Amino acid sequence: MTTTSQPVDLNTPTFRSGTESVPRLDEGTTLTGKDFSSDQEVRWCPGCGDYAVLKAVQGFLPDLGLRRENIVFISGIGCSSRFPYYLDTYGMHSIHGRAPSIATGLATAREDLSVWVVTGDGDALSIGGNHLIHALRRNVNMTILLFNNRIYGLTKGQYSPTSEAGKVTKSTPMGSVDHPFNPVSLALGAEASFVARTIDSDRKHLTGVLKAAAEHRGTSLVEIYQNCPIFNDGAFDAIKSRDTAAEAIIPLVHGEPIRFGAPDDSGQGRLGLIRTDAGGVDVAEVSDVGEDAVLVHDAHHSDPSQAFAISRLTDAGYLNRSPIGIFRQVERPTYDDQARAQVATAQSNVKAEEVSGSERLGALLGGGDTWTVV
Amino acid sequence: MSKQVKQLDRVIIRFAGDSGDGMQLTGDRFTQESAAFGNDLVTLPNFPAEIRAPQGTIPGVSSFQVHFADHDILTPGDRPDVLVAMNPAALKANLGDLPKGATIIVDTHDFSKRNLEKAGYSSNPLDTLEDPDAELSVYNVFPVDLTGMTVEAVKEFGLSRKDAARAKNMFALGLLSWMYGRPTDSTISFLEKKFARIPDVRDANITSFKSGWNFGETTETFVVRYEIKPAPVSAGTYRNITGNLALAWGLVAAGVQSDLPVFLGTYPITPASDILHELSKHKAFGVTTFQAEDEIAGIGAAIGASFGGALGVTSTSGPGVALKSEAVGLAVMTELPLIVVDVQRGGPSTGLPTKTEQADLLQAMFGRNGEAPVPVVAPASPGDCFDAAVEAARIAVTYRTPVMLLSDGYLANGSEPWRIPEIADLPRIEPGFATADDLTESGEFEPYRRDAETLARPWAPPGVAGLEHRIGGLEKADITGNISYDPANHDFMVRTRQAKIDRIADSLPPLEVDDPGAAEGNAAKVLVLGWGSTYGPIGAGVRRVRRSGYRVAQAHLRHLNPFPNDLGDVLERYDKILIPEMNLGQLALLIRARYLVDAVGYNQVNGMPLKAAELAEVIGHLVADAEGIPVDQLDLSIATNQEVHQ
User: Fold this and answer.
1) Does ipTM top 0.90?
2) CB < 8 Å from B in window 126-185 of A
3) pLDDT tens per residue, range A173-191
């Protein structure tokens, strides 16, 4: 059997919203955050960033206007993966690292669901790294919330794949010699169609990103910086503190010049991102390079190179600086839409013949080389 | 010249050549011709794990054995009556399996010094055929330049010499088809279709095939043709089918019979990949196939689809089951329907990818953390893979549980005539999804409230208002399904999950015991108990012993977990229990542990099916022991002689 060298025309569907095929609430019906709270007692440590994200998600879900029974949260293992128990939707708390694969099966089998994955830096990037990158490349219609606290919480404080090199933890008393992943760079490398980063404590920004992610058709990866007050307290202080945030956060807004830092005379940030001769991007004083040199953020560009270059400005060590916002948001055919389209095409061909499943099964079994004994 | 025609009751032919010589195709076509003719048949393909092992070497030899007969047969045969060897390596690799007097047809074309050396021959064995001390002297050897004649026959099509020579397998097929009076229409139409887009190659292959036939007709080398009459079989429409094809169609049928969309999440692995290939063709039945990034994602996606209300399936072989174990445990805990197909191959680790074995039984039973009982179903023959798949689906859906379906490499690639079932005779499978009617009076949904009869919990896919619930791998509280760390609840839930699987036995028919004398009070003292693909060899071994005048009973287990309710009673009726297996005694371990009977094993793990003759010997000795017959008086020769036709 030889394969043809020309790819098949997949008859790509026109682009739609991520929630377009999910049933909506009846006209005049609205839900509140309370409708999304389950009867289970929330059991995270006091001060955990997960509380803020849970509140934000419960508060934001009604805005989607979707039927509650058509929303599903699937998680892996870890502190953040308890999330589904606290939401009164359908949910599955699965096994370590595998949530994206379970969500892939569910999202492919059921077009009418809004599928969410809740995962952490260990769950998504360590044990489940393979499933994450493959979900992103396939572009299955789901939203992945990656809670990044840069530490293993549930196993009590070992370094994670996003912990900075040299980190002293229970398992690395002389400092970690592992080189960390940057989740956004990783996702962009896998050609994810939607990649964003936000912060647990900035509810407004978090909610805005979640809404864009949910409306995006395809796999949306949202990295949420999330503080672990027990094992990694203060990991995000530089970007959370009033005093340092302006210099630490590089805000990404599509179509706007990327400027940050203390305001200059024009009221805009004194710093800006510029292209480097090496093909990357760097931070410069706008007064030195001139306003025209400052990059205008283009999250919709089909080439992820610039988004990747921006993602590299994230500190790999202690987080003194990080770009925050939507890095990339492009339209690309989704795996599940195309898989369903192939099934639908095959089914519409036989439906036209008006033959029952049983008759077709009989034809299948009895087709080809057969002989009859009387 | 007129040829002599000799009647035979059965023949075993083995086609052997280099992996690139098209031996699997040749064997498959001969099989189809024999099936169309109406013989009963069983096949055994045997090929290296490498796609193209070094040409001309012993490791590169690929073979296809077909056993066809005028009566009901059960195995591909122990020892070939005829070997077709396309090169020196094929001759050398297969010689040891031939009985004295076997016929060998050798393509002399490749018996060059270089190829002889590659096969490990220091001199050409064909040069010394007349020498009574030579290795080949005990066989009936026909040296023929198959390749040379093929190239000559197809020269009009202007193919390169290399391409022309590639049609030699069809020449060999034509010759053998003549020799055994096979109908040729199906092979010619097969070639027309296969090479429709390459007319030169199509014509060369058809010409080569016909030339092989004509050569047989005209040459003086072969003076005898053989006739093997069609086998009397029960009325119906038949087709030849391999285990993987039957299993894939069984899954399609399960989807139709349950009105559930089938979702296969899988990762390619030998010898299970053909199930994926086949199911990917059946989208019109609502089948979705997902080729995942790894084995774990394959089962993960299947679980996700099952949660969504599809019939989730994952297919693999032993190494893949090892990777999927944790996810199977999740399906046990979340009590979702799931079919895990394990087409067993030689292990451990990567083992023998293309060879058969049944050493995953204990992995299927116990290969998970915690008390994680999983039903185990095993087909007995290639065609039986269809029914076994439907049965696995019935159990998975009815009892909301993952089910292990244990096929093996021999069943997967081997084939037999299969009576096509009437669709109306297939069982209905009722998903019985939870609805809003299942809410309590106070409007609560209780995802872990169980059916009184089956102990199954509700299956409540997303999309139904009021049934929102969370499931997961953490221990569940009875009824509510909420997380529970309560010690008494855990103990209860562990026992309940086990009890649910045990209850499946109540839905099974009594174990069929084949003990011909039992009805007249002349029951056997020895029972041979088997499972899976050993059904054929055990049956053939049992027949040999019976034909020699001895009593022996046979029973074969389709359900390995739970066992049929009456298995203990059956075992008690016999003095001796023999359990032949292609492992070191895994079923025997389970039987001994469960029923405290002194079952003995007959175990072989050489990557090949058990041999009927060896089994007859073992069974015979056990029968002699049980019946008080001195071993030196044991005579199994009647049976063996009866079946030797040359």
Assistant:
1) yes
2) 130-131, 134
3) 999 999 999 999 999 999 9
Contact criterion met (CB below 8 Å) for B327 and B299: yes
Q: What are the tens digits of pLDDT across the range B416-471?
A: 999 999 999 999 999 999 999 999 999 999 999 999 999 999 999 999 999 999 99
- Strand A259-263 versus strand A269-275 pairing type: antiparallel
Which sign, positive or negative, has the C-alpha torsion B30, B34, B35, B40?
Answer: negative
Chain segment B600-626, per-residue pLDDT in tens: 999 999 999 999 999 999 999 999 999
Q: Residue A355's pLDDT is what?
A: 86
Cβ contacts of B445 on chain A, cutoff 8 Å: none
Q: Is A78 on the interface with B (CB under 8 A)?
A: no
Beta bridge partners of B483: B476
Of the residues B186, B468, B480, B482, the best mutation for testing chain A's interface (the one with the most A CB atoms within 10 Å of its CB) is: B468
Q: CB–CB of B300 and A104 under 8 A?
A: yes
Q: What is the pLDDT of residues B165-186, one digit of tens each?
A: 999 999 999 999 999 999 999 9
Instruction: Supply angle C-alpha B27, B32, B36, rounded to 5.
Output: 150
- With an 8 Å Cβ cutoff, are B35 and A113 in contact? no
pLDDT at A370: 87
CA B449 to CA B269: how far, in whole Å?
Answer: 38
Of the residues A44, A102, A137, A343, the best mutation for testing chain B's interface (the one with the most B CB atoms within 10 Å of its CB) is: A102
Q: Which two tokens stand for residue B266?
A: 């899988």
A29 has a chain B CB within 8 A of its CB? no
Q: DSSP H helical segments within B123-198, as ranges?
A: 146-153, 161-165, 168-179, 185-194
Any B CB within 8 A of A41 CB: no
Domains of chain B (ranges; CATH) run: 4-227 (3.40.920.10), 239-425 (3.40.50.970), 432-492 (no CATH), 513-643 (3.40.50.920)
Taking each helix axis from N to C terminus, what angle separates B199-218 and B168-179, rounded to the nearest 10 degrees? 40
**What are the DSSP calls for B275-332, one per residue?**
HHHHHTT-GGGT-EEEE-SSHHHHHHHHHHHHHTTSEEEEEE-HHHHHHHHHHHHHHH
Question: Which residue in chain A is spatially nearest to B186 when comparing CA positions?
Answer: A369
Note whether A109 contacts B304, CB cutoff 8 Å. yes
User: Quick one: how far is CA A266 from the chain centroid?
Assistant: 35
Cα separation, B56 vs B85, whole angstroms: 12
Average pLDDT, chain A: 94
A-B interface: how many C-beta pairs under 8 angstroms? 204
Q: Rounded to whole angstroms, how far apart are CA atoms B628 and A361? A: 54
Domains, chain A, in order of start with CATH, read 33-255+298-332 (3.40.50.970), 257-296 (no CATH)
- Contact criterion met (CB < 8 Å) for B464 and A373: no
Angle CA(B513)–CA(B517)–CA(B522) in degrees, nearest 5? Answer: 120
The CA distance from B259 to the nearest CA of chain A, in Å, is: 9
SS3 for A43-71 is: CCCCCCHHHHHHHHHHHHHHHHCECHHHE
Going from the C-alpha of A39 to that of each of A61, A117, A163, B199, B449, the distances in angstroms are 17, 21, 34, 71, 18
Is A105 within 8 Å of B239 when comparing Cβ atoms? no
Which residues from B are below 8 Å from A346, CB to CB? 283-284
What's the CA gap between B372 and B394, in Å, rounded? 20
CB A102 within 8 A of CB B304: yes
Q: What is the 3-state secondary structure (H, E, C) of A241-307?
A: CCCCHHHHEEEECCCCECEEEEECCCCCEEEEEEECCCCCEEEEEHHHHCHHHCCECCCCCCCCHHH
Amino acid of residue B405:
L
What residues of chain A lie within 8 A of the CB of B237, using their CB?
366, 370-373
